[in-house]
Automatic annotation (TrEMBL):
Chief subcellular location: membrane
GO molecular function: sodium:sulfate symporter activity
Membrane topology classification: Multi-pass membrane protein
Name of the protein described by the UniProt record: Solute carrier family 13 member 1
Length: 604
């Protein structure tokens, strides 16, 4: 038993040591550059999937393994760790830092919720739209962390308002205030016991005595329900409904934070990794940019968001069209409470401050410059520099705007009652320390490791060997190949991080498309989108973990809801890639910018 305990305690260390040793026969027996590159790829991929080391640390392994194997020189490997992607990421993080620092995100979220109203279904949709909009420009984790406290405040206010309304209702129906209070105390005791039991299960332990007590209490509750007055029976049914509403509100934040990130090329790290991998592997193709990605993904995002909203409503509340679309009826206590807390939170923000206005202007300017660089249907601003075609990219725009956040002062001159101007010390909108605290350096190094692996596969001819072995898959229907790749990445991303998953599969799927003579975008776009579909478990996605930590959900709640949204997501992506995305990139034509793979193959 002690040996087993030691193995469990040192399992990460054993994995670090045994993985390279067990795979060592590959380069020792098959003494080719392809085998040596494959050995490095397998070691790094296993470390990324199991995470015995931090992801960024594992990503540094190619930096010394490739030079030792003679695959690439050290300076060549080092150049792969900082590319155009990193400049784009830095510019976007400057914007995100300013948005978070000056609370502009909170104003946007509250305003959107106020626009849709406080009807249960529309309130949920309002939170989903606001959270998904924020996640287009910020990280999914940041979007969930920003909106979730607002959701929690609304939920707490709903609980308080409904408890007061129930006490009054029971008091009127029974003719005694004391009786109502006594009933409320009894119910409170049962609720506390029930919540305690749920908390113990979430924390990974269970107490037999607590389970027995809860079981007895629940049985007693069923017996009491038969003799309860109508007001109390109605209160119990409302409690179940509100519990479902809280679950829906929590899940909508977790899922919309991920769904919204699909919309823009900068919305999630997987999109950025895909864009850099694609532009590096196919430099002659200029079709993937901010505008083209937005056009292909916005219908997918909207459809998935709406269907997810419908699915969550049906799963936890039932889809009651009458209550959803009721007009002109008096608001319930819960709806009044929701409206009150949202309006109070918005009033606390006060009028828009000078830093918020500047941040909004720079945000709009960055977005417009991204869209108008190479819109496709008309000449963009990049055509103003015909001698330097292709020199400016989305990262150029991001860096120019990002630099302005370090230059523009955060405070203006203010006039005193005497009419004199008071000068403050010069402080920019964001400082370097604030930028550093928001910059995801781990993701930056992880992506660099992925680029290094991709370069190593090209130099060692491993990618050519993989392509030759994948050629027989061309006999399968194209839609089936796409579906299989989508299902594989969706399954892997539930247990591995999204950036690690996409970094592993892009160098595999690109040769696959070339081998079967299919436009690489036909396979890479749906695989990239499906890599973000980590909806099943709290640990599958940081946004899921943040929402789960509030205690309103169980693991089974998330599994049930996430399974349905995974199916919805894959189905919508398949629909999109076979219909409206086809004419955008002329997917049924094998492009001139993709290499033509010969039938001759090399062996390891």
């Amino acid at each position: 038993m002690k040996v087993l305990n030691y193995l469990l305690a040192y399992r990460r260390f054993l994995l670090i040591v045994l993985t390279p040793l067990l795979l060592l026969p590959l380069p020792l027996i098959i003494k080719t550059k392809e085998a040596e590159c494959a050995y490095t790829l397998f070691v790094v991929a296993i470390f990324w999937l199991t995470e015995p080391l931090p992801l960024a640390v594992s990503a540094l392994l190619p930096a010394f393994m490739f030079p030792l194997f003679g695959i690439m020189e050290s300076k060549e490997v080092a150049s792969a760790y900082f590319k155009d992607f990193h400049l784009l990421l830095m510019g976007v993080i400057c914007l995100a830092t300013s948005i978070e620092k000056w609370n502009f995100h909170k104003r946007v979220a509250l305003r959107m919720v106020m626009l849709v109203g406080v009807n249960p279904a529309w309130l949920t949709l309002g939170f989903m739209v606001s959270c998904s909009f924020l996640s287009m420009w910020l990280s999914n984790t940041s979007a969930a962390a920003m909106v979730m406290p607002i959701v929690e405040a609304v939920a707490q206010q709903i609980t308080t308002a409904e408890a007061e309304a129930d006490m009054l209702e029971m008091s009127y129906s029974n003719g005694s205030t004391n009786l109502a209070l006594e009933l409320d105390e009894n119910v409170g005791e049962c609720e506390n016991s029930d919540w305690t039991e749920k908390g113990k299960q979430v924390n990974g332990y269970d107490n037999d005595m607590s389970s027995t007590v809860c079981t007895i209490e629940k049985e007693n509750e069923k017996e009491k329900e038969q003799n309860l007055p109508p007001a109390e029976t109605g209160r119990k049914s409302r409690e179940d409904k509100y519990s479902g509403i809280f679950k829906v509100m929590c899940l909508c934040i977790a899922y919309s934070a991920t769904i919204g990130g699909l919309t823009t090329i900068t919305g999630t790290s997987t999109n950025l990794i895909f864009a850099e991998h694609f532009n590096t592997r196919y430099p002659d193709c200029k079709c993937i940019n901010f505008g083209s990605w937005f056009i292909l993904s916005i219908p997918i995002t909207v459809v998935i968001l709406v269907l997810s909203w419908v699915w969550l409503q049906w799963l936890f509340l039932g889809f009651d069209f009458k209550s959803m679309f009721k007009c002109g009826k008096k608001k319930t206590a819960r709806e009044e409470a929701s409206a009150k807390v949202i309006q109070e939170e918005y009033k606390k923000l006060g009028p828009m401050s000078y830093p918020e206005i500047v941040t909004l202007i720079l945000f709009i300017l960055m977005t417009l410059l991204w869209f108008t660089r190479e819109p496709g249907f008309i000449p963009g601003w990049s055509s103003l520099f015909p001698k330097y075609k292709g020199y400016a990219t989305d990262s150029t725009t991001a860096l120019v705007i990002g630099l302005l956040f370090f230059i523009i002062p955060a405070k203006t001159l203010s006039r005193t009652s005497n009419g004199e101007s008071t000068a403050y010390g010069y402080t920019p909108l964001i400082t370097w320390k604030e930028f550093q605290s928001c910059m995801p350096w781990e993701i930056a190094i992880l992506v660099g490791g992925g680029f290094a692996l991709a370069d190593g596969c090209e130099v060692s001819k491993l990618s050519d060997w993989v392509a030759s072995k994948l050629t027989p898959l061309g006999s399968l229907p194209l839609w089936l190949i796409i579906l299989i790749s989508c299902l594989i990445v969706t399954s892997v991303t539930e247990v591995a991080s999204n950036p690690a998953t996409i970094t592993i599969f892009l160098p595999i799927l690109s040769p696959l498309a070339e081998a079967i003579h299919v436009n690489p975008l036909f396979i890479l776009i749906p695989a990239t989108l499906c890599t973000s579909f980590a909806f099943l478990l709290p640990v599958a996605n940081p946004a899921n973990a943040i929402v789960f930590s509030y205690g309103h959900l169980t693991v089974m709640d998330m599994v049930k809801a996430g399974l349905g949204i995974n199916i919805i997501g894959v189905a919508v992506v398949m629909l999109g890639i076979m219909t409206w995305i086809v004419p955008i990139f002329d997917l049924y034509t094998y492009p001139s910018w993709a290499p033509i793979i010969s039938s001759n193959s090399t062996g390891l």
